[in-house]
Every structure is written in structure tokens, then in C-alpha cells.
Amino acid sequence: MATADWNPLGNVYYRNVELYQMDWNGLLELNQYMIAAAPYGGPIALMKDDKKTGRVSTNVKPIINVYNAAGKPLSQLRWNSGNVVHLGWSNTEELLCIQDNGVILVYDIALNFKRTFGMGQEAKEMKILDWKVFSSFQGTGIAVMTTSYRIYLINNVDDPRVRKLAEVPDLNSAPSSWTILNLDRQSRALVAKDAQLFLVDHGGQYQEQFPELASPVTAFIEMAVSFNNKLLAMFTDKGVIWIGSSDLKKVYCEFNTKASQRPQQLAWSGVGAVVALWDKLCIVVGPEKDWIKYNFESFVYLVQEEDGLRIIGNELHQFLQKVPDVTEQIFKIGSMEPGAMLYEASKEFSRRSQKADEYIRMIKDKLDVAVDQCIQAAGHEIEPSKQKALLRAASFGKCFLTDYRPEAFVDMCQMLRVLNQVRQFSVGIPLTYTQLNHLSVPVLIDRLVLRKLFCLAIRICHYLKIPDAEGASRILAHWACYKVQQKHEDEEQLARSISQKLLDAPGVSFSEIASQALEQGRKQLAIKLLDYEPKASEQVPLLLKMDQNNTALSKAVDSGDTDLVYTVLLTMKDKISNMGEFFMAIRQMPIAYSLYIQYCRQQNPKLVEDLYYQEDNFLAEGNCKVVSSYSEEMFEDRIRKLEAAITCYQKAKMEFASKQTEDQIKLLKIQRKLEDESNKTYIDMSLHDTMYKLTQNGNHKMTEQLRKDFKVPDKRFWLLRMEALAESSDWTELERFSKSKKPPVGMEAFVDVCMKYYNRTEAMKYVNRVTPDQKVKCLVKVGNLKEAADSALESRNEDSLNIVLSKAIQSNNKQLIETIRDYKIRLNTKK
Amino acid sequence: MAAAGPAHLSSGKINLGVLRDHYRRELIECIDKCTGTKALVWDDALTGPFGLVAEYSLLKDHEVEKMFPLGPKTLQASNVQNIIFLTRPKLKLMELIAQNLLNEDHKGPQRTEFHLIFVPRKSLLCEKKLKEMGVFGTFTSVEEFSLELIPFDNDLLSMEIDTTFRECYLENDFTTMFYVAQSIMTLQALYGIIPYIYGKGDCAKHVVEMMRRMKGELGGREPQITPQIDNLLILDRNVDLLTPLLTQLTYEGLIDETFGLNNTSVKLPAEKFIPKNQKPDEPLEPKKFILNSSDELYADLRDKNFNAVGSIVSKKAKAITLEFDERHQAKTVGEMKQFVTKLPHLQKARESLTTQTSIAELVKEATNSDGFMETLRCQQDFTNGLETDKIHPYIEECIAKKDSITKILRLICIQSYCNDGLKPKILEYYKREIIQAYGFEHMITLMNLEKTGLLKIHGIRTYAIIRKSLKLIVDDVNEQVPNDISYVYSGYAPLSIRLAQYLARPGWRSITEVLNLLPGPKVEEIQQIPVALRKRRNSITSSHSSTGEQRVTLVFFLGGVTYAEIAALRFLAQQDEGGTDYLIATTKIINGSRLIDTLKEKIESVKINPF
Questions:
Q1: Out of B177, B436, B606, whose CB is closest to A687?
Q2: Secondary structure (3-state) at B391
Q3: Quick one: pLDDT at residue B543?
Q4: Is the omega angle on the peptide bond into residue B506 within 30 degrees of 0, that is, cis?
Q5: Per-residue confidence (pLDDT) for residue A242, from 0 to 100
Q6: For residue A46, what pLDDT is reported?
Q7: What does UniProt give as the signal peptide span (chain B) (predicted)?
Q8: Contact with chain A for residue B206, Cβ under 8 A
């Protein structure tokens, strides 16, 4: 019978399911140990407790053992630190060993030391009296009470910040009991001073609490907070259990156990019942004063879970839970729920009985509910055979439905498969379906990784089709980190086997594995592994750390990340004291080399010149010299720089450049001379500008000299002179110039230059000398439109006439417009 | 951040508002890391781009109370709790910042905290520099804000890094290419993996290689978005150095050539924009205009050939007058009301019309000058392959008249390109003329131009073949109602855009030979997209949709793009048979003068000591 192990508690049922036969059975007696078991089916840590064995403490250091939930040993450690008073687990399954001086040492599940922190100076000096490990809104918290009855707490063991709680007034002896309550995202302590209750926080406040009490109380001697932090149970010295809300505002019941002795453990089973344990007897009390009694054959230890209570004993590991509603609906004797009917139908069907049909007919219109119920109920079963029977029923029911969405069924099958795997004795994580939903699959996978169950974890990822980047890759990376710690394996082989497995996995950080290898002192392995790292930004710094400069440089260059290249270059420069050697090293990489030059150009231009010199880049060296010559203040220095540049250009066989530089020196010397003579500035002017200035100053002889010396082309010389003369209004000289020799420029250029300096009269002189085809254009330029029109008519050029017309329109000369239109008609008729 | 930003960014085929929001979120995250009131100290080059991403009111909402430009002087006094420096990672700027901080020290102890935000990326060198100057420890935090591609318009993104071409081809420094690759990765994170990648040129290849690496670094954590961009075309400016050198003849291009457009805004002489009867007594500050597609008329005009602008403006003017006149016909109250609701829109349109008319007049003045026309004629000679192998009289004359050196270098470079390099004698003549006329210091600039290939000794003849096979010269160009991209340069079709055009149809395979003649390798790569994310094409349902099957191609110009090229791409996108929509990204929007200017060697001469 499915309901054989059900016990009624008021109108609900409780059942005690067997999870495991303990592996440690016969090897140890639990009552001699300090016990810590992590929630969510976590590991169990045991440490021999001298007080419990009653033996005189010896100098032998105690041993800490960690077991999985099935009692299979996972790891062992001989304790060699201070006096451990309590063990606890954090929410990331780290073992917290609390010493009597308030120092907490943190170990991972394999008992590798992780870190340590203290609970403050007072705890250290005064020693601690009592302690609580609790789950806070930030993670796992720890609270300790010092021998001076002050409470210190931290909210998160990953980020330990010690807070001091307010003082309870007139507390001169140890409180009769206390616990930590999590309300409104704040952790506060509820302290019982006999019958008085105080709520203290770290803001220095305390509040006395007055819960509703039916029977008189002299002292609260035990407290228990439910897993979800919403409910509180308190045990009084009169044997009464007070059950209420954790804010003490609501009371559910007071139940008199008539026990005078303090219970060994007071705990919640889920949120529905409080369990009090005395040695081998335990009482389950419901909110309506209903109760069940259980007897155990030996010492047991209780672990609160979200949806029940785990009971760990020498032989058995059991799970006490409220029978889930949906399970009750299906299996309760005489239940007429659709799920129950469907389950029956399925059973009859497998017996080939026609009754199956009858049952189905009875629930025809509620078949979808029935299927849902069977799927849900399957989730709550621990036994695979029961899961199967229920799923079979669901599947059977689904056959009669046309539009039932299959997701729920498929999801449940997948989850159950995963759950059954991790519940296996060898894995030993007895999670329920409810717990897994809360914990989430990624966290479960993390926990498997912590237990080094890499293969199982990867299989689960693949089975659930978790993307590789989030699942398999991460696991493989952990595996590889673990692998490089195993020193007995051959490096070559190790690198190969790691890369083989990880190369196709996206998003694996090889540099992380490599740095792990480096930490283990395996440099060669690290270098080999780093070669597989796709992220240059992580690869390069590590390569530098290992002195692999050249590899680092080439990897940085390949990445295209300039900053990374500079990181390498500057590190190398610091490391290699010999500059020549450094240059040799970077010369092989043109990009790195150019970047270094870029850097020097901004920081140290002289160094750039040296660099070019070193590699016989004479052209670039010459250019550097030319550029730097301009910043020389002394004339002689400037000339000297330029002369040096000429040598460079000659070496580089740059004839043009060296000739130009020579010319520049020549020009500079002339300019210097001119400055001395005329007290005007000439230096830094171009040859052209120098000649221009000379012309304007009337030094025509010198201008002529320069023209010859520097072979200035005729045409440019003419234009230059014309412009200079016109600007300085030397119209006579201009005219004389126009008549000398045969000008290489047309007369229209003279017109232009005159007009540029607004001398129409002078311009007119040249208009008469221009060639006929340019005449109209020039007349337009001087603004004589009428004459331009006449001239255009004369030369019978309609295009020119049109140009004049457009100008006339622009200047809005109506009379002229008429005339030109007239001309145009004349021109056309003549044709 | 509820505001989706200016509406015009979201109106394109790809919603660039998403990108803008992404940057705003990152910026705010950066700024919010320090609590309390803040003052921002800006690297000047950043203010323009930032203005396009985050307006002052947004910063104000996050307790930014004051903003100063970064200068050599001491910081202005302000009683804020935090001073945040926003800067590009340049050593010069680090010196300024250090000076500022050291001056601050003299003022004695203060409670102000200092922060530093690098844009777009932290730089080790800069941090080292700050350490050397002993101020690095003063910063409470050093962050980076990766503002890479700034949305200029609904189809246009720019990184606003103007030295790219110089760095890549003169200094062998490919840092910007790394930023480009990262910016494409950002785009892919927001708009999905781009399935097909094409590229031409050394830098393009470099970028594609880095993208491949970065993809590897993502390690399978790729964005699970259906790709919105189908193709990526990366064009290295080196592949087409001719186009940017030519004078752009679109409206927007000419505004840029004559007045210079920076971050979509232009400064114009203010006299033109005040009513004629109230002449001011003193010269006015130039007036600033923001030009983008949020102005309907401008959106219409910007990509037109300038010769077509007049007719559009007058048509628009008539239309607006007509609409205003409607009020006379309005008889009933209902009609009147309808008119009034239209009024704000009409007034805005009229205002925009006045502005655009004035701008067009200003541009017209510039283009009417003889110099402009002759320059254009000279350019057209060259692109047609005429007179390219002798000294051009116009260039000679310009040198003699000492016209702007940039203009001359532009022309000579065009000649060099169209002649596949100049005869040694001609090149030497030009160089000597320039040195004599403008000074010896330009010799290095000329060497720079030679090093980048803008000037060269003549080699294998390829230009004629390229010109013919890509139909670069179109004689019967229609400037009013264009039927080919050549309208943007009145008869010359930009080579770069021809490449994009051929890629879309019929494909690059048809022009393999020409591609081989152009410098740099060709890149083609396919990025696999998971089946679930692929666009479903040619399915039965989509054939009904009116939007059709337009593919989106992102064209990334490494080393800059001109407004005329942008116009040509937009023209292609509008063609019915094109079937391709274009999203344009670039390191910087350039024109010939800007390109040449970055290659100039800046030499400052100290005054000679007279003794």
C-alpha cells in the first residue's frame, strides 16, 4: 500500500521515507561526534567530540571527516589549528570551522583550506560561548556570543564584515536561549533572558517582545526558526512548545509535551510541523496541536530542509515530510480525484482489464487535470518504480487528449532522470523535486563539480541541452584546473589531453588553467596550455609573467590590440637592460617596431633618430634631422643640422632631397645676409616670398640674382613680379615690365592683377593689348559691359555675347540687356 | 531611459536609436559610478560627438552641474564633489590633465574626487604617462567609455577619428583598425551576426582577421538575434584614393568643401541670416546650423547635384505659399481649424526653406568664382585622362599665385592618380615649384604623399582600364533627374561606390580583373548563422509584404568617406531594381582637403636668435 507509511497529523499526513542505508553503519557512533550537515542534501562533516565521548581530552589532534549524504567518505583532514567548537556549512558548500576564539577557517568539500577570518577582537580575547550558522538574505551568516554575552554577526561568509549587535539589558548570565531572525533584509537576534524576549539589531536598538502566551513561562530554553525564516518555535522549561510567526505577532498553538528535559534538537519539518527530539524519541507537532510520535533505534541528527526534515542516523538516512497534496489526492484511500482515477485506470489497463475504460469515462472531462496530477505526483516520489507508475498513468491519460501540451511531461521526465542520478548512493545528493526547483540546475551542476563528478555533470548538461558556453565548457575548465594539480601526470600528455577535450568547447579560459598550472610550479605545462587561449588580453600578461617575451609580443601583435603591444614593449624594455638587444628583439616585428617609434616620437624624438640610424634608414633619419633643424634657435646649428641631413640623403641616394636641402642652406645664408643688410626679416620665408618681398622693397637686382641662382621658371617669375608690383602700386614698373622682352603670360594676366588691386585705369591700358579672342572677357572683367557687347558683336561671337548678357542681367542694367538682345538678333539675321 | 532619442535616427531600415541608447546607457553607467554632484572636463574633440549621443539635460539628470573644456590653465573653481575628465587616450592630453591636477594641488586640500574616463578605450601608455607625472594616484577611478560609432543620421555612423589614413599608411599603426573591428562587434551584438563579409584592401583584410579573432574570444556567446544586416562591405580608402580628392558637387558635399561640416553641424557667416534692413554694427559670430534628415527639406536636398538644388527650392517655395494661401479659402470654422493644426508644420517648413535658400546662395557664391570653375575643369581633364602627362598650366599658375597649398596638392595627386603616376621629370618639377613657392618644410609633406602612394612615379597603366571597365566617366550625366551615381561628381562615378554597386549586382565575380588591378587583397567570408536565426526568405507569406526583400548592406569605409559618396550610396538604395539598402559607417567623414591636411608634416619653426 502506498499509504502504509503515512501518519495523519490533523487533516494532513506525514511520511518518513528512507533515503539511504548509511555506508558508515557499524563504523562509527554518531553520538560521539560534532555533526554538521549542509541543506539541500549536502555533505556531512563529522569531528570527534571529546565532551560527548566523555573521555579525557588527549593531545591527539582530532580528525575531520566529510561524507556524502549516504555516508560515503569524501575527504579527511587532521586538524592542526585551534580548538574547534562548531562546524557548519555555507550555501556554497564550504565547511566553516568555528574556533573558540571566534576565528573561522573555511575549507572546501575536499577539505582544502580556502581562507580564514575572525569575529572581532572581543571574541578573540573573551572566547566565545555560543554560535549560530544561519542563512541570511546575502548568503550564509555566522553569529557568535562571547563570554561577556555580546553578540557579533556577519551576514555573508564570502564578504565577512563583523557587526556588533545591541546589548540586552541586564544580561548577567548566559541567556536561556537565542537565535537569529531574518526580517526585512536585516539579521537580528532574538534573545531569551528567562521569560523575557529581546530583539536586538546592529543599529544599537533592542526591543522587548511580548508574544501571546496562554500558559505561564519561566524561561524559553530552546528556539527554532523555519527554513523560510517565517515561523518560529520556542520550547519552555515547562515542556510547552510555542509555535508562531517569526515576528512573534501570530500564535498558532501552544503544545504541552509534558517533558521537563530540554530537547536535544528542536527543528522544523518544512513549514508545517515542529519536531522535538529527545534521544531516541521524537514528536512531530502540527499547528493545530496534533502530534505524531516516532521512535528511533539509535541516536539521530536532524537537518531542516525547505520541504521536510532529514533524519540522519547510524544505520539510516530518512526524510520526514508532509505528504504533498497531489500525492495525497491520488493515493489517499477512497480518493475520487481525477488523478486517482487515472492512476487506477492505468493500473487496470496494464492488467488488460476493461475497467480501465470505465475509470477513464468517469473522469473524461477532467482528464487534463488528472494527467497534471499524475505528473506532479511523480515528481514527489523518491522511488523510481513509483515515479514510473505515475508517469505511465500520465502518459496513458495523455493518449485521450488531443491538445495537451507535452512540455510538462517531458520536463518532468528529464528532471526525474537527473534527480535519480544525483540521488544515487555514489553521488549522494538526496534532493527533492521542490528543492531542485529552488536550487536550480546550474547550482546543482556546480555542486557536482565541487565533488569532482565532472563526467556526470557534463552528461547532465548535454542531456538537458544546456549551451556549451554555460555548461560543458565551464565544467571542462574546472576539470582541467583539477587535472593540472595532479603532479604525477606527464606534462606533455596532460597538455595534450586537456587541449583535446577543451579545444572544441567554446568559452574555456585556457589562461585560467595555465595560471593554475603556474601556481603549481609547472611552467612548461602553463606555456603549452596558454597557446590555446583565444583571448590575447589574458594570454599575453601571463606569458610576460613567465618571461616568454617574444611569444607575448607576437601574440599581442596578432591580436591587433595596440595597448597590449605596448604592454609587452614597455615590460620588455624594463627587463632587457641592453637597448641594442631590445631593438634586435623588436625589429623582427614590423608592427611592434612602428608602434615603438610612434611612442618615441611623442616621448623622445632624439631616440627615433637613433633608431633610424641603427637600422640604416637614412632617408627617415634625414627627415628627422630636417624637422629638428626647425627647432634650433642658433643659425649655425640650423645649418649644421641641415648639412647632416644632406649626408643622410646622400647615403640614401635621395638626390632630389639632398639638392633641395642644399638650396635651402643657400637660401638661408642669403636671407641671413639680407637681414643683416636691411633690418627686415627674411628667414623662414620661402624663396618665392623672399623674392616677392624684395620686389616690393624695390630690390630688383637681388630678385634677378635669386631667379638665376635658383632657376625660377619664367612664367612664375613674371606672375610673382606682376603681383608684387601691383600690390605695392608700382604701376610704372609694372608697365615697364610688361614691355620688356616677350612676356610668357598673356596681357589678360596684367588685366587681372590690376583689377585685383582695384585699378581700373591701369587695367584698361592692358585691355587694349590683349589678343582679340580674350578681349570680350577682359572687358567684362574691368566692368565695361557695353564695350564688351560691342566687341563681341564685332567678333560675331554669340557665346561671348551670352556671357555679357548674363553679367548684364546680374547687374540689372535694363538698357544694356535690351541692346544685347538687339545685337543677338542682328547676329542671327546676318548668318 | 525612456527617450528613444531623436526620431530621425530610428526612421531608417536599421534602427540606429538602439545603438544610441546603448551608448547612453554605458555613459550613464560610467558617470553614475561616482556619487554626488559632478563637473565634466572635456577633451575638445569629444564635445561634438558626445553632443550627438547625450544632450546636456541627460547629463544634468545625473547630477552633472558644470562642464569645462580641457585646457592648459587651472580648473575653474566649482564646488562639486566630483570632477570627471573625459578624454581620448593621447599623451598630449595626459600632460594637460596632469598640469590641471598639479595646479589643483597648490590650492590646498579639498574634498573633491577626481575621475578619469577614457574614450573609447583605456590606454596603458596614458596611464603610465600619468604615473610618471605623479598624478595617477589622484584619480579615485579610471574608467573607459567605448563610444565607437557615433550615429550621425539614420543611415550614417562615424567614429570621428581623422588620422586613420595617416596612421595606417604612413606610420604603420593599425590601432584604429582594432577599434573598427570592435565597433563592428558591437553592431553585431545589437543587430545580429552579419552573414556575408566582403572587403578590399590591406586594412579591410586586417579588420576581418581581427573580427575572426574576436569572435573566437566570444567563445560561443554570440548574440542570439536574427541578423538585421545581411552584408558587410569593408572598403579601404587606399583602394580608391581618387574620389575623395575630387571636388564634391552634391549640395551637402559642397557645403562641406566650402565651409566644413563637423559632426553634422556647420558654421556660416551670420550676416546672411538676418533680415536685410537691420544690419548690425559689428561683425557677428558665425552662426551654427545642425544639418541632418530631421529637416525634411534638407533631407531632400543634401544628396542632389547642386545644379538641381535651385529648382527644388523654388518648387518647395511655391508649394508652401500655396498651402499658406489655403487659409483664404477656408470658410467654415472646421476648415479654419484644420488649417491651424497644420500651421506649426508649415511655419517650420518655411523657416527651413529660408535657411536652405541662404545656405544655397552662400554655396553659389563660392561655386561661381573663376577659381572654382577652373579647378573643376582641370579635375575633369584629369579624370578623363586628358593632359595628365604634362605640366598642367592651371596648376603652374596656381602655384605662382600662391593659391592654397592643399588645393594644389589635391590637384597634383589627382593628376598622379589618373596618369598612374607622374613622369619623374614632371613630379620633380612640381615638387621643386612647391618647395620654392611655399617653403622647404613642405618637402617632408611631399615625401609623405609619396610614401602613401598619393604621389608616385608612373608605373603600370591601370587607370584607363579601371575607368573603362567600371564606367567611371559618364558623359550624358543627368544632374536634375539622375539615372546613375556619376551625378554626384557631374560625370565621374566614385570608384568606391561602383565597387559596392557591382557587389550588389551582379557580384564581384564579374569584375575580378579590375579588382586585381586595385591595391590590396580581396576578402570574402561567410559567418555561419544558426538555422533558427536565419531570415526566412522567399516564404509564401513574405511575398505579400510590400516592403519586399531589401537586403541591408553595411559599408564600412576605412580611412574616411565623402558626402558625395554617401549621396551615391543613398541614390543606389533608392533605385527600385537595386534591392539593397545601405548603412554607412566610416572612421571619419572627409573631403580631399581634410585627407591632404592629415598627411602634412606639421613643422613649427622657432625664431632664429639674431645674435
A1: B436
A2: coil
A3: 37
A4: yes
A5: 92
A6: 93
A7: none
A8: yes
CA A647, A653, A657, A662 torsion: positive or negative?
positive
Record the cell numbers describing residue B536, joined without a space.
Answer: 526566412
Touching A: B residues 207-266, CB under 8 Å: 209-210, 213, 216-221
Say if strands B150-153 and B156-158 run parallel, antiparallel, or are unpaired: antiparallel
- DSSP conformational letter for B461: -
Tell me whether residues A627 and B178 touch, CB distance under 8 A: no
pLDDT at position A374 is 94
> Count of residues for chain B?
611
Are the Cβ atoms of A686 and B439 closer than 8 angstroms? yes
pLDDT in tens, A295-319: 998 899 999 999 999 999 999 999 9
B-chain CB neighbours of A713 within 8 Å are 396, 433
Report pLDDT for A417: 94
- Estimate the share of chain B in helix, then strand, then coil, as percent rounded to the nearest 5: 50, 15, 35
Residues of chain A in contact with residue B608, where contact means CB-CB under 8 angstroms, are: 633-635, 638, 683-684
Residue B234 φ then ψ, to 5°: -105, 120
**CA of A140, closest CA in chain B: separation in Å?**
28
Residue A477 has pLDDT above 90, yes or no: no
Inter-chain residue contact B220 with A591, CB threshold 8 Å: no
User: Nearest-CA distance from A630 to chain B in Å?
Assistant: 5
Q: Which residues of A touch B436 (CB under 8 A)?
A: 686-688, 710, 712
Who wins on pLDDT, A811 or A387? A387
pLDDT range class, residue B6, cuts 50, 70, 90: low
C-alpha torsion angle, residues A764, A768, A769, A774 (rounded to 10): 90
C-alpha cell, B290: 545642425
Residue-wise burial string across B353-384, b where 16 or more C-beta atoms lie within 10 A, e elsewhere: bebbbbbbebbeeebeeeebeebbebbbbbbb
The reply to whether ipTM tops 0.90 is no
**Count of CB atoms situated within 10 Å of the CB of A35:** 18
pLDDT digits (tens, 9 = 90+) for B513-547: 999 999 999 999 999 888 778 765 544 443 333 34
What's the CA gap between A105 and A561, in Å, rounded? 43
Across the interface, do A561 and B436 touch by the CB < 8 Å criterion?
Answer: no
Average pLDDT on A183-191 reads 86
Q: A13 or B336: which carries more pLDDT confidence?
A: A13
**Cα–Cα distances in angstroms (integers) from residue A459 to residues A105, A353, A445, A453, A602, in the given order:** 34, 40, 10, 10, 57
Of the ranges A498-512, A558-572, B338-352, B579-593, which one carries the lowest mean pLDDT score? A498-512
Q: Which of A469, A566, A603 sits opposite B219 (nearest CB)?
A: A469
Q: Which domains does chain B have, with CATH numbers?
A: 7-147 (3.40.50.2060), 155-245+492-596 (3.40.50.1910), 251-368 (3.90.830.10), 371-463 (1.25.40.850)
Question: Is B440 close to A660, i.e. CB distance below 8 A?
Answer: yes
Which of these, A159, A162, A158, A156, lies nearest to A144 by C-alpha position?
A162
Interchain CB distance below 8 Å, B216 and A657? no
| Dihedral pair phi/psi, residue B244, rounded to 5° | -65, -20
What confidence tens digit (pLDDT) does each residue in A418-434 have? 999 999 999 999 999 99
Subunit contact A626:B443, Cβ cutoff 8 A: yes
Contact A516, A481 (CB under 8 A): yes
How many contacts does A have with B, using Cβ atoms within 8 A?
A: 144
pLDDT greater than 70 at residue A277: yes
**Which of A675, A684, A712 has the CB atom closest to B436's CB atom?**
A712
Interchain contact, B206 vs A559, CB within 8 Å: no
List the grid coordinates of B390: 604634362
B172 contacts in A (CB within 8 Å)? 590-591, 594-595
